[in-house]
Design goal:
Helix content: 40-55%
Oligomer: single chain
Distance between the termini: 42 Å
Protein name: Membrane protein
Keywords: Membrane, Transmembrane, Transmembrane helix
Shape: globular
Number of strands: 20
């Protein structure tokens, strides 16, 4: 099957211009605020106009020269203004076609298409920034025809409509939003943003406006901190609601398709053959409420697409996890109770979690005396954290599948098929050797860099058993 060479939609020119402006905007901001002795006369502004005109012209030429088509079993792209570039991607190497639609694309009824291959990379193998939805369907159909050796019949289309489909409920979406760990991300983002404008923000005047707080009571400070936390929590909830609204999972014989979002709609296709592991995560709040998040670890993908991990189900009642896995990924279903760590591992887990608390408490008590004594509350928290990490760690082997459990902050269970394990390492320190303990590290091919899962302080015989199970393969 063959396409005549096509251009992306003219909206692509706007997107190219926005991309070009973004690449220069940081320089303009620095020049404007740090310029100092620069004479902002008419020649300066004429220079700005000339740069903008150049970006406009290059965006138009880039759109004009960009063409794509399918021919002789290859997805072909030609682009380049001054240097003509060609990229030919064999169709059999195409693993997935991911679809996004930002605000601009949605206004014009267009989508952004990212074509991924098994090799992965920093960016997708090919990106079509603005094409019509029917063109996406034509591309997918052409690839399917080439791979399957036959055209799609009406029966096939009917089967596609009847595929197993999961849609997030309003209750689950609200739980996912209210129990997400996005508060820390938002606080970090705000701090990082403010830090970029230290020279601009008039801190002294701001401090003068709130000088009355210098003599405020502890209660006032506590109320202000609580209000700030509530505001960031609300922002986090809104962000998650927008990101995971209309979250849908569809499965056919060869791949799983995940779509989500309001302002930026996304659709990701993950070939089932490329799935390396399943990760079931419970952050402390969701664990308390009995909910989990299920991730797919898949090979391929790109760093720009954050292909290291993909959320399969944002929030699922703990009792429904196995039901959903049995329906969508039956080879990973039937999670079992893990073999726990030996009791002699407990003291090592407690020590690792208590040490940071002690390191924080001592200088605070020395410097701040009475107020520093409040930091002692970190000790029982560290002790309980260490106990939970010990209690939740373990392993179990079920035929050709390894199940590992561990806790950093969130409780995590990983399900890995033996033939998907890239490497397995057994580590032993001096103190572990004295207690007959070992650490197991399992690496899979996930995204661009791969991913490792570690369970510390296993019984030496259990660690040897796991290594022997993998070596036997």
């Amino acid at each position: 099957m063959m396409f005549e060479p096509k251009r992306i939609h003219p909206v692509g020119m706007i997107l190219n211009l926005i991309k070009a402006i973004k690449s220069y905007i940081a320089s303009f901001i620095v020049l404007f605020f740090v310029g100092g002795n620069i004479d902002f006369n008419i020649y300066f502004f004429l220079g700005i106009v000339a740069i903008f005109a150049f970006m406009l012209l290059s965006s138009f030429l880039e759109w004009l020269k960009f063409k794509y088509w399918i021919e002789d079993g290859e997805f072909r792209i030609e682009h380049g203004v001054f240097v003509k570039k060609k990229r030919y991607i064999p169709i059999e190497r195409i693993q997935s076609i991911n679809i996004r639609a930002g605000i601009i694309q949605q206004i014009f009824g267009l989508v952004n298409v990212q074509i991924e291959t098994a090799s992965g990379g920093i960016e997708a193998e090919a990106i079509l920034t603005a094409i019509k939805k029917e063109d996406v369907h034509t591309i997918e159909q052409a690839i399917s025809i080439y791979k399957n050796g036959a055209s799609l019949s009406q029966d096939d289309e009917e089967k596609e409509i009847e595929l197993p489909t999961y849609k997030i409920s309003k209750k689950e979406l609200l739980i996912a939003a209210s129990t997400s760990s996005g508060v820390g991300v938002i606080l970090s983002a705000i701090a990082a943003f403010i830090s970029q404008f230290d020279e601009i923000i008039p801190y002294e005047k701001i401090y003068e406006q709130f000088d009355f707080l210098a003599n405020a009571s502890f209660t006032i400070y506590a109320i202000l901190i609580f209000i700030a936390f509530v505001i960031t929590w609300i922002l986090s909830v809104i962000g998650v609601l927008l990101k995971y609204a209309y979250f849908t999972v569809t499965k056919d014989e060869k791949e799983i398709r995940i779509s989500k979002g309001i302002f930026e709609k996304q659709q990701v296709s993950i070939p089932i053959s490329r799935i390396q592991a399943i990760r079931i995560v419970q952050n402390p709040l969701r664990e308390l409420l009995g909910y989990s998040t299920i991730y797919i670890e898949s090979a391929g993908g790109s760093a720009s697409d954050q292909g290291l991990s993909t959320i399969l189900f944002p929030v699922v009642n703990r009792k429904d996890v196995q039901i959903l896995l049995a329906q969508y990924l039956p080879s990973f279903a039937n999670e079992q109770t893990v073999y726990p760590l030996p009791k002699k591992s407990l003291q090592r887990y407690l020590f690792r979690k208590l040490l940071p608390a002690v390191v924080i408490c001592i200088p605070l008590i020395i410097v701040y005396l009475q107020w520093g004594l409040l930091s002692i509350v970190l000790l029982p928290i560290g002790y309980y954290w260490g106990y939970l990490a010990f209690k939740n760690a373990g392993w179990v082997i079920n035929d050709n599948r390894l199940q590992l459990s561990f806790r950093v902050i969130s409780k995590t269970t990983v399900l890995i098929q033996r033939n998907k394990i890239q490497s397995m390492k057994s580590k032993i320190s001096y103190f572990q050797r004295r207690n007959g303990l070992q650490t197991i590290s399992v690496t899979i091919k996930s995204g661009v860099l791969g991913k490792s899962f570690v369970v510390k302080d296993l019984d030496e015989r259990d660690a040897d058993l796991i290594v022997d199970w993998y070596s036997y393969s």
